[in-house]
Amino acid sequence: MANSLVSIQIIPKTKNGEDVIPYVDEAIAIIDQAEVRYQVNPLETTMEGELSELLTVIEKMNERMTELGCPSVISQVKIFYQPTGASMDKLTEKYR
Length: 96
What we know:
This protein is α+β, with helices and mostly antiparallel strands.
């Protein structure tokens, strides 16, 4: 069972002020390749899994942005950690 929910908003600084959406799409592709459960929301993406695994995904996302030529990246991260188990469904079930 997953022990963490991690939400990330990645804000890459682009080389020439280009639109960041293609870069964000690339960051989401990194999450998808990691094969963790995730949900894309308007301002951030939430992942569900083991904390160490999710932090590694965030590291890969940041590295990918620099590979694409971004001189810097801001990653705003929120972490919910519960060793006994954490799930997006459980945390939001009363709203559904």
